[in-house]
Model the fold of this input.
Amino acid sequence: MRGRKHWPFKTGLLVAGLTLWFGTAVFAAPAIEGDTDLTVEADQVVTAQFTVTNEEPMESVSLMLSYDKDVMTYMSGSGGDNFDVTGGNGSVQMTSSPESTEAVFTVRFRGAEDTETTLEVVSCTAAVNGAEVDVLTGETVASEEEAEESDEGAEGDEENEERASFVIDDRTFYVRRPGDMEGFDVVHMDIQGIDSRVLKHNTLDLYVVYLISDNGSFRDYFVYNPDTGNVIPYVNMSSGTDTVIFIEKDEDVEPPVRYSYVDLGWGQKYTIPAYKHVTIDGVDEIFDDTNRYLVYGINQDGEKAWYSFDYDKNSLQLFDTIAYDGEQIYITELEEKDTGMRSEMAYQLERYNTDMGTRLFVILILVLIIIALVNVVVLMYLRMRKMKMLPEEESAEDDEEGRKESGEYIVGNLEENETDFSDPEESGQDQDLEIIDLNEPDEDDE
Done:
């Protein structure tokens, strides 16, 4: 009986223990496992896989990795439903909406040398039941923000409409409280008429804002330009001994000649304003087929300049504007000379065509004149020949008439041994012949 009296108590303890144990299991934070230590070989593809798990379905998962860009080059990533990835410049950010208890991310790199390297998980968050949980710490991100806002006297959660916002790639991003960044201090700034917390560089007139997309999937830093109100992705690269941050060019700064504006894709999410070399074909601009771009940046000393960015090698080099301008002046002179020669050749060709046309016209006129003259000569010759034949016919007619008048011509057809003269006796006609004495004087003379 004594043992039975303590049974309910023991049962309560057991139930309480089971409740605590199961409760801990149910509300356990998401966990992540993956390949952080990699063996890299030159020009070979190496793959790393990361798995985020939770006992309850996750609406969305975001994972950011960092890698040694001198050892590996980012190639691609995958991660299931509604997957999005941005990679390059030493970092990779992947997001997906698994709507399940597991999210698997795979990322691929190409090795630059044979070595051992390490992938670092910079951040990993998961949205569970509408709350965003930091997978690395197990803390709820929303609770931290509410606590920070309450510390500053804010009442309740701040709505997105009360925050400054930017539209990037058809997605709305809101300004949120930034974290700590070396060389920057948190300050307040009026953005779009809203008091916002931003990062200001310790020595430079440079501002950085922390933006989160409307669905919480994308979280990145952007350089904010108070003069234009624009933002571009925050990019910090080394150029020799300088540390360069990409910025939007000033309004009074013109890009070098033969460079045209392009949107340089930065990963798969954002774009950076850049310029690309072009050649002019008539009125068309033909971009060169290299992956070299011109970007505007500021170094640690506050010097702004153009930089040549090699996308394939992920390298940055100061652009020598003076040498380039001198080269372009020389090229321009050659082009002007070539253009002048082309114009002169075109003029000579046009003049030749004009002269040839004139010559052909003159030749045609001369041919027509010659043909006309030949016709005239032929006609005159025919007329003169006709006139020459007419006098001969007239003289022949005169001779014939004279012979008729004198009666001394004989008409008839004579045959052999025949004569026109007949014997008077034979004719049977008596003819009196008169004898004329030539010596006897004429009666008329007497």
Q: What stands out?
A: The mean pLDDT is 77.
